[in-house]
Write a structure and sequence with these properties.
about 325 residues, mainly alpha, 16 helices, about 80% helix
Length: about 325
């Protein structure tokens, strides 16, 4: 990682060398935070956008079109930045990349947006709430894979941020929000989709010789084979209808956001940020997503209540405290070594 960032030690003494090493790491950490925040804000906007899009077309067709647009952008950028040689596996498993691309893109897009469609007009809010469970899923997955518990304070900050998000999206009445949803199957689908994205995010670390851009591009295109295959099968079985030209024209504005912005920029930034911060830290920023979804709704005239303001503050404070804690913890470990 240090080589990629490009720092070098200063041969004027141990303290100077240490200072030179620490500064770029702090700079890289700041970039990682920025990438993750921008990515989750862009992802948060996509749920209100999808609310209208899903009234015109099924989620499977939309997912196929969305990632065809995003995948084309990723491929063009990869060829410009790394050349044709970047399309080679370089010793990594293409089968694993296909599996992760299928889980991350086909699984996430199909399950989450199908659940959002089944949930009806309140689907965007429901989906954003479920996305806030991803840090918990990430902790569980990390503990299982690495066979080690995460830092206690990070866990507490994640709980705090989740509690804040819950206040924002439920207006302080969590019990009522739990009683109101009648689409439990929709909620289950969204949860499965969220877990698919956590799995995709955490598994990026297995591809050590691939850049974040290469990992994103190849997994997108390999995952597209699953998305398109599923779409064709559903058309053939007449589970979903083939969209008409009028329906495709109706979702064109939605695709302009969901493809280039939420599909290309957001995912690229997400993978770049997680490569710097590590998935255990990066997944915490998924709590920004439902706050963004609510903020977009507020633009349409929804005035936040006192409980929602408190919740937003709790989430922001949790993110800042966790950031400070992880920096200090890493600095202490480095000093001890």
């Amino acid at each position: 990682m240090n080589k990629r960032i490009g720092f070098s030690s200063v041969p004027s003494g141990r303290e100077a060398a240490s200072a030179a090493a620490v500064q770029p790491r702090h700079s890289a950490y700041g970039k990682g935070v920025l990438f993750c925040v921008v990515a989750t804000v862009l992802m948060g906007i996509m749920f209100p956008v999808m609310t209208d899009a899903l009234t015109h077309v099924d989620p499977f067709t939309f997912t196929s079109l969305r990632y065809l647009i995003a995948g084309t952008a990723f491929l063009a950028l990869l060829l410009i930045k790394e050349g044709r040689g970047a399309l080679r596996a370089n010793g990594e498993s293409l089968l694993l990349a296909w599996l992760l691309g299928s889980i991350g893109f086909c699984g996430f897009g199909s399950f989450v947006f199908l659940g959002q469609q089944l949930a009806g007009p309140e689907g965007a809010l429901t989906a954003s709430i479920m996305m806030a469970t991803q840090p918990m899923m990430g902790l569980l997955l990390n503990s299982i894979v690495r066979k080690s518990m995460p830092p206690v304070f990070s866990f507490l900050f994640i709980v705090m941020s989740f509690a804040g998000v819950s206040l924002v999206v439920t207006k302080g009445n969590v019990a009522a929000a739990l009683r109101e949803p009648q689409h439990y199957s929709a909620n289950a689908l969204i949860l499965v989709g969220a877990f698919c994205w956590v799995t995709y995010t955490f598994s990026a670390s297995h591809f050590k010789t691939w850049s974040p851009l290469k990992y994103t591009t190849l997994t997108t295109w390999l995952g597209l084979t699953s998305i398109l295959g599923l779409n064709v099968l559903l058309f053939a079985l007449r589970v979903v209808p083939v969209p008409s030209a009028a329906q495709l024209w109706a979702i064109a504005p939605h695709l302009l956001y969901m493809g280039p912005v939420a599909g290309f920029v957001a995912i690229l930034f997400w993978n770049l940020g997680n490569r710097i911060l590590t998935p255990l830290n990066g997944v915490l920023f998924m709590d920004v997503l439902p706050v963004t979804t609510f903020a977009v709704s507020a633009v349409t005239g929804v005035v936040p209540g006192r409980a929602q303001i408190v919740g937003a503050c709790m989430t922001g404070i949790a993110l800042i405290l966790n950031n400070v804690y992880l920096r200090r913890r890493a600095r202490n470990v480095q000093a001890a070594r």
